[in-house]
Specification:
Elements: H1 3-12, E1 18-24, H2 28-36, H3 39-45, E2 47-49, E3 58-62, H4 70-78, E4 85-89, H5 91-95, E5 117-119, H6 126-140, E6 154-155, H7 162-168
Parallel strand pairs: 1-2, 1-3, 3-4, 4-5, 5-6
Helix pairs in contact: 2-6
Amino acid sequence: MTAAPIRFSLDWGPRFRLSVFNLGLACCAVEFVAASMRRPDLVALSASGAGEPVSADVLVVSGTVTDKLAPGVLAVYESFPSPPYVLSFGACSNSGGPYWDSYSVTKGVDQLIPVDVYVPGCPPRPEALLQGLLDLQSRLGVTAPGAPVSQRPLVLGGQPGPQDLRRSL
């Protein structure tokens, strides 16, 4: 019985310090690196980079996901010990971006894995990554440990999600 408060604390700890694993696939990865170089912002956010998926809480997919890379993205997602929170960073990972009509481009990473936060832009600004992580942290504050963040993903800027964009084309 005495382990219950400790378990509760350990389960709620990651919502205050998110470790991020970046799966940089194209030009949006450069913007991710630019955001991670702004150390004062990341320290204030309490986010840190993780060297391997085993120690990360958030998977950031930045860049174009091609059909050939899709099994690799899925393998990285499955290598996490528990399902990570997923942040889709940029138009290419959100919906295929300017390459959406190509035969070899996956029409959004949400075709493979569940996405919690969409960050729009081509390329998105480094500040958009920080805003996405802040919004993810704020959503984690109201959910139970181990529960999915929300049934409906969060889109920064109030813009339509990739599913809505595909319906309008």
